[in-house]
Design brief:
It contains six helices and no strands. By secondary structure, it is mainly alpha-helical. It is rod-shaped.
Amino acid sequence: MAQVKDKAVGLMGLTKEVDLKLLHKCFELDTYDNLLKPEYMDAIRARRSHMIAQKNREKQNEEIAAKLKLKYETMKCNIISQRISLQEHLLKQQDDIMKQLDDLLNNEEEAKNLTIENVYQEFFRMWLAGF
């Protein structure tokens, strides 16, 4: 290591140009702005902070996308489970529902008086009462 330092010092004394790669290997130059002019170092710092911010945004976007996918899948599972529950509920009441529909079809006077609102108010509310 001492030989490398001696080479670096020797190089600095012989020429105006400095091999920064060699100096970076031998010394910690961050405290001296990597021996660059302040304008260049400011540009480098700005670029580094921009790259870090961009990586953070990409990471946040990936997290948001994963959360949205999870939410969508959860909602999908909830909808499926609600459908299954509704089917089970209606299957339990199947005999009553079929009897009510047969009675309605056999009675022509009641069938004539039915409208969409009446069907909703009378039958669907009764079928869904315990759900």
